[in-house]
Each structure stands twice: as C-alpha cells, then as structure tokens.
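Note to self: keep these together.
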Amino acid sequence: MNRLIDYFHDTRNTIGLAWHSWVEAIVIVLVALVASFTLNPQDPLFIDASFPWLTFILLIIALQYSIGPTLIALAMTLCAFCYQYAWDALSLYSHQLFLFGMAMLSLIANQCRSSWHNRVRQANATSFYTRERINRLLNDFYMLRYSHDCLEQSVMLKPITMRDALKEIRQLSIGKEGEFTEEIGTPLLQILASHFRFTKAQITLYNDKQFDKKAICTLGEASELDPEDILIKRAVKEKKAQYFAANQFEKESHGQFLATLPLRNADEGLVGMLCIEDMPFLSLNHENLTIMSVLLNYFTDEMSAVQTSISLLKRHPECCPQLAKSLMKLQTLYTTIGVESSLVAFHFDNIENRKEIIRHMYKRQRGLDETWELESKKVGEPNVLLVMMPFTDLQGVAAYLEHRKEDLKEQFNLEIGENGPVQVIYHAIRFQNLNDLYEEMVPHHAS
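Structure:
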C-alpha cells in the first residue's frame, strides 16, 4: 500500500513541490533577467521589441512546474519591471496590457500542464492497477492448474488441494495480523516440501534491503544463509527463481544452495527468499521451480492483502483478503488523485438457477472489474455477488446496471430491483469507513 501511495502521490503539486524545483524556477528566471539586462539594458523586458522574448522563460516555468513557481516567476518579472521603469510606469495602458498578457499566457499554459498532468496520472493509475490484476490472474491460473493436477493424481492419499492448504495458512495469518512468522512459514515450507520433495531448505525474510541474519523457518539442518551466494545475488537482481545447473555456472562458482526462489508480492517488492539446499535431481527442473515461484508469489500476495486490510478482516473474517485489499487500494486512489470507483452488491433470493445466473454474470464482467461470490451460511439469507468496478463513478454504475437488467431479462426473464428476486446495492468508494461500507453492502454476511 505504501508503494501504491508513493507511486500516485505527485510530489510536484502546489504545496508539496520539492524545494529544488522552486530553486530551479527562481534560478532560471534570474539568469534570464540578468542576461536581458546585460544584453539589452534599454529594454530588458522587450516591451518595445517586435516579440517579447522573455515570455519563453515564463512558458518554460509554467509548463515544467506547478502554479507556485509560475506565480513566483511572474512576481520576479513584475519586480524587474518596477526596477527598470518604476511604479509610475504601471499607469501606462500599454504596459498594463503587456504584463496582463504575460500573466494570462503563463496561467493558461500552467492550466494546460495541470490538465494533461492529471490525465497522465489517471492513465498511470489504470496501468498500475491493470498490471497488478494481470499478475494476480496469472498466479491464480497456475494455482488452479497445479491444484487440479495434484487433486487428480492423489485424490485418495491427499484429499486437499494446494489452494485449500494455503487458505488455511491465510486464516492463520489473519490472527498474526499478516506478519510472516515461524508459525506461518513452517506449514508453508512443509507443504512445498511434500509436493516438490526437497529435504533441506529455509525461508529468510528481506527487510531494509538486506536479509535477516536468522531464517524465519527451516526444514532439516539448513546452513546459515550467505547473502553473497551467487544464486541469491542473481535471484535478487533478476527477481526470479535461480538454480544450479552444469551448463549455467562454472563448477567453482557453485554456492551452498541448489535453488533460490524470491518471495515477491503483487507490487514486485521482495519479501524474502526460499533457499533449497537438498533436492532430488529429477525434481530440480525449470517447471517445478516456476510452479513453486507462483505458489510463493500467491502466498505473499495473500499475506500482503491481509496486512494491508487487517482492520477490516479482523472485524469480518469471512471477507476475502483480496476484496479488502482492493477496497483499500481504490480508496487510496480516490484520496491521492480523485479517481472514483464503485462497489455493487447483487443479493440473490432463493432462485433455482442462481449458479447459472452468477456464472453468466462472471462471463459478462468488464475488463478491470473483479467479482466475488459470498454464499449464505443460514437458511433464508440471500447469496451475494460483489462486483468491484475500478475507475467507475455512480453514473457509470447506473449505465452498467441498465445493461445488466436488459441482459438478465433477455437471458433468464429475471427482474432486478425492488420488484424482482435480485436486489441491488451500490456505493462509490470514497472517504467512508470501509467496515461500515462492507456491512452496508452485505448486512447478513457481516452480522
């Protein structure tokens, strides 16, 4: 979350503009004025010239910086005018028009700069959110694929999928407030060892751009981690799994580990490192390491979601951590750059073909939308389908609901609204308390 805030928080705004930008603007204007007074002492501001060349300097300031440095530049120009012509010269109509025109040109240019700057920030916000969604979908795809393979191969011996095991660890992490502890790392290491057959490994956390001296959890008699190990250095640099093979490294360069896998969250931040010291030869291959990397990234992303939204998850443990994390992120987007998003809840009463309707709505969801289904735990309570709509205001939600009404009416002869079996609640994600928002959207599940 901190990285997201840093990413979208523009340091070049009126109040928080970096001090060196103010210095740059002042120096540029001073240099231009000194050059003008030196080269053209009779008319340094080029009032009587065929073209007011000093306007270029003010345009550069207005287009490069925010309104603050622009006003400073205009004030310095006015001081230079008074120094050259004295205050009485301001009474001349031609001089008033010159200064007024220069000020208006600078302010209009600065407004254009601000407008396009905001568009770029919104485009960056969309790109950042989309890239994170793609990474998460990729992890989910690998998780589903590998979980299906494991279930198919050992349904009798291991009647639990990898996804289910990680979900149990995630529930444990909520009690630890998302902190990566030995109680969470040890089960994770054991699950990976049982599936990929390594017998000696360790997980070491990465804090303040360096590895902890002691591993958070170990399997077997693992050696102490050496940050200078060639595989560790390559894994940190390239942000992907590294392993030893005869055709990759010279024999003397082989370190203490056979493979190193970085633990990265969705923001591409390094959380820790899984170092494998002993693993069967046939299991040490690119495909296994790729799957392990995806599982680790999925796990660290879940941990990051819990840590980011712990206040909401503690109060409502049934809430999906990714839903809570997305709510936090979209609220941050609204706080930092004013981009509004919305949350829509479809409450389904007892409908026979509810599963088919929800499956149909999944297929029809828009590109950036995220959907979660909350099944009722008590008889008589409605099932809820939550739709997160990034970068969509309430007008966009109204248009979306009209399309959904027409679509469901045509496909299933189903009414949405007060008179139908599907009730709709929607809200914009702004400054409101997220606990209150969640309880209002899904009152039965939140109780």
